[in-house]
Design goal:
The chain is mostly helical. The chain folds into two domains: 88 residues, Rna Polymerase Sigma Factor, Chain: A; 83 residues, Arc Repressor Mutant, subunit A, CATH 1.10.10. 71% of the residues lie in helices and 0% in strands. α3 crosses α4 and α6 crosses α9. 29% of the residues are buried.
Length: 195
């Protein structure tokens, strides 16, 4: 899970003093997650890398305005989402882009480091169960459980209600728990799903 206070501190240092070291550290902290998120929307890691790079360039260029940002993590996800959707619109002028048509393989490309504590076989079963979820449900599960965003942050990011996030997460947890319960002790399954 991301350290919100560290992200806020880096964001503040960038905005108040143009601190390049804080900027580099913020990029290192969030780059992989934002690229994975953008790639899920665009279907292209190459495009996602460009988009996230553009987002961070924009952050640096508008650093004096960062003090007004209340939640830097959500702000960066929203900027990434908007830039990803705009890029898709430019590439696909007449196609409607929906979060229900996400590239779910891209969501799974960067497995969380915490999973290294779980055996490879169990991790594969968990990942297979997560990948079997519908795209939006999978995205919500990963944003909350792997990226550490709060329900209201995910709701804001995806333009849905917090109740929808809660409902989708409940569905995801039940399906993943059912899929992995047969193959592992229930304590281990629940500790993974509810950390």
């Amino acid at each position: 899970m991301m350290n919100d206070e560290l992200i806020r501190r880096h964001f503040r240092c960038i905005g108040e003093g143009g601190d390049m070291q804080a900027y580099d550290e913020l990029y290192r902290l969030l780059c992989g997650r934002l690229i994975r998120f953008s790639a899920a929307i665009t279907g292209s890691f190459h495009l996602a890398e460009e988009i996230v790079s553009d987002v961070f360039i924009m952050i640096w260029q508008k650093r004096e305005q960062l003090a007004a940002v209340e939640n830097p993590l959500v702000y960066l996800y929203v900027c990434t989402r908007n830039r990803s959707l705009n890029t898709l619109q430019q590439h696909r002028k007449h196609q409607h882009t929906s979060l229900d048509s996400l590239d779910t393989d891209a969501l799974a490309m960067s497995p969380d480091q915490e999973q290294s504590m779980i055996s490879a076989e169990v991790a594969q079963r968990i990942e297979a169960a997560i990948r079997s979820l519908p795209a939006r449900c999978q995205l919500i599960f990963r944003l909350v459980k792997q990226d550490g965003l709060k329900y209201r942050e995910v709701a804001e990011l995806l333009n849905i209600s917090s109740k929808t996030v809660d409902a989708q997460l409940t569905i995801a947890v039940k399906k993943v728990a059912e899929a992995i319960r047969l193959n592992m002790p229930s304590e281990l399954a629940w500790s993974f799903l509810f950390r």
